[in-house]
Amino acid sequence: MVIKVLVENTAISEDYGSIHGLSLFVETENHRLLFDLGPDQLLLENAEKMGVKIEDIDTVVISHGHNDHGGALGLFLQHNRRAKVYVHTGAFDRHFSEASGLYRDIGLDASLAAHKQIVLTEGNLELDRELTLIAGIRERELYPQSNRNLYTEVNGKKLPDDFSHEQSLLIREGENRVLLAGCAHCGIVNILSRANRDMGESVTHVIGGFHIRKDKSVQLVQGLAARLREYDIQYFTCHCTGQDQYALLREEMKEQIRYVSAGTVLRI
After folding, report:
1. Alpha-carbon distance 140 to 189, whole Å?
2. How far apart are CA 195 and CA 174, in angstroms?
3. Is the dihedral of CA 105, 109, 114, 120 positive or negative?
């Protein structure tokens, strides 16, 4: 399995652009897929530099309804007319970030929900023997405090987001079980528990953000590190984890965790 980081907040060199967002290209035995698309045309620019042909993508998974993960959806659909794009039905609801009483729209383009390539999902969904979507996480162990300023709109009212529109992707290849989590708003520990316990898998690798970038509690980050160390898993984190928080995780977890940036290539 080859995984290329196309969009991330940072880049491995000046050869690649960077922006607040995430997009991962994954090549498996049966698929060339994208997990998230980032916010804009940087997806196309870095994909070309990394030898990824957008027109060859057969599957897209958008992890949740925020534009830093799916803002480039319309652009992708202009360049690819074959891929199925799996989006949770709630991802096209309106979503907001709040600061000082002001609400900023951070949602997806709802007009794309009816596009013929869009497949609306709910709950866990096995796409084939390699790919399974994981959703509907209700547990709240080590729930990211950075979620506190995120809202969704229900019947015209802005309510705290419960992230029922979030989905992760489990990829099976040989002995490997690779879990991709866009922001892990529902808590990476809870998503792992669903995959390992409820789905009977043994995750070997995790790639994604942990959404603790704004969490200032050293104890919270150390607690997360302690829980993640309980698993025999190699972690690759990025995006909304935050550099300071990653440094704390790295201090506790050593080689068990690495940071990945735009331009990174992983071979698993």
Report:
1. 9
2. 17
3. negative
> Residue range 203-220: average pLDDT?
92
**Backbone Cα Rg of the chain:** 17
Q: Stretch 129-157: mean pLDDT, rounded?
A: 95
CA angle, residues 9, 110, 166, in degrees to nearest 5: 55
Q: What is the model's pTM?
A: 0.97
Cβ-contact 35, 133 below 8 angstroms: no
Q: Tokens 């590190």 correspond to what residue?
A: 225
| Residue 9 phi, psi dihedral angles, 5° rounding | -65, -25
Q: Where are the beta strands (DSSP E) in the chain?
A: 2-7, 23-27, 32-35, 59-62, 84-88, 95-99, 102-105, 118-121, 125-126, 131-135, 150-154, 157-160, 167-173, 176-181, 205-208, 234-237, 257-259, 265-267
Q: Check residue 197 and give its pLDDT.
A: 83
CA–CA distances in Å: residue 192 to residues 8, 55, 141, 207? 22, 32, 11, 12
